[in-house]
Amino acid sequence: MQAVGLSDKGIIRRNNQDTVYSSVEPIGMLPDLFIVADGMGGQPAGDYCSHMLVASILEEVKKSTEKEPVRIVRSAIENVNRKLYRESVSNAELSGMGSTLVAAMIDEDTLYTFNVGDSRLYIISDHAHQITKDHSFVEEMADAGRMQRGSLDYNRNKNIITRAIGTDMRVDIDVFEYSLEKNDRVLLCTDGLTNMLPDEEISRIVLGAPDISKAAETLIREANNKGGKDNISVVLVDPSGDRSGREVQS
After folding, report:
1. Are 150 and 159 spatial neighbours (Cβ–Cβ below 8 Å)?
2. What pLDDT score was predicted for residue 141?
3. Are 186 and 34 in contact (CB under 8 A)?
4. What is each CA distance from 127 to 96, 101, 141, 215, 231, in whole angstroms?
5. What are the structural domain ranges in the chain?
6. Does residue 159 register a pLDDT over 90?
7. Phi-psi region of 166 (alpha: psi -120 to 50; beta: other; left: phi over 0)
8. Mean pLDDT for the chain?
9. What Å distances lie between residue 218 and 38, 172, 234, CA to CA?
10. DSSP state letters, 50-112
11. Residue 85 · residue 45 · CB < 8 Å
């Protein structure tokens, strides 16, 4: 297995409120772990929330005595959500903070994905297949048949999310299980990538690159070339590659 995680502040933003984590080595009882978080709430709240979210999840995972991987991750997210929410209501500087979260682990040939917010996970084979579902106002409206995906109203309101970590004492986590096939690539990313590049271009870049490191670099470069309006973060995983890639957090 090979993995790479990269994050860039983009062209417009002064600060990077995204945090990425990638490890192909065991973390506690988990065989590996990959995380992308997109903080919100302004400085310093957005920065703090995404960084503390990732760091605290790692602490929870490492100390867990649970054996079942999905329970380990779900419990870690729930515990950290409560911690961050309590901080947001007790510290005026952190009031209103929150973060999206997409996390994944691969156990043999099975991918487990955990999603809160509008950061995404894709399986890229012959095309980009979105596994997660955006927790956003526009997706809820589209599902209800009250808004057309890709319309002007849809694109104007894409930044309004309906779920986030740290905004309430309880959090609803989507969990997906997917059987990986040979040559599948796994991409976790923030909306700073997907708002700049369509799925077709994302898959073309990943499939056309000589390796996942070059693919990750090209994804960020092309998102910046298209305007770089937000922070851009990617974690790209090749489950079939020789196990390599150091533990990365940024």
Report:
1. no
2. 81
3. yes
4. 37, 23, 26, 15, 24
5. 2-249
6. no
7. left
8. 91
9. 20, 33, 11
10. HHHHHHHHHHHHHH----SHHHHHHHHHHHHHHHHHHHHHH-GGGTT-EEEEEEEEEETTEEE
11. no
Question: Which residue, among 223, 225, 244, has the nearest Cα to 234 in the 3D structure?
Answer: 223
Q: Which of 235, 212, 231 is nearest to 33 (CA)?
A: 235
| Res 128: pLDDT | 95
Report whether pLDDT(136) > 50: yes
% of the chain at pLDDT higher than 90: 79
> Is 2-249 in CATH node 3.60.40.10?
yes
pLDDT at 142 > cutoff 90: no
Entry field: residues in the chain: 250
Residue 97 near residue 49 (C-beta atoms within 8 A): yes
Structure tokens at 124: 């890229």
User: What does the alpha-carbon distance between residue 240 and residue 14 come to, in Å, rounded to a whole number?
Assistant: 37
Read off the pLDDT of each residue in 67-90 and give the average, rounded to a whole number. Answer: 96
- Cα–Cα distance, 9 to 41 (Å, whole number): 16
Tokens for 81?
Answer: 């959500």
pLDDT for 249 equals 58
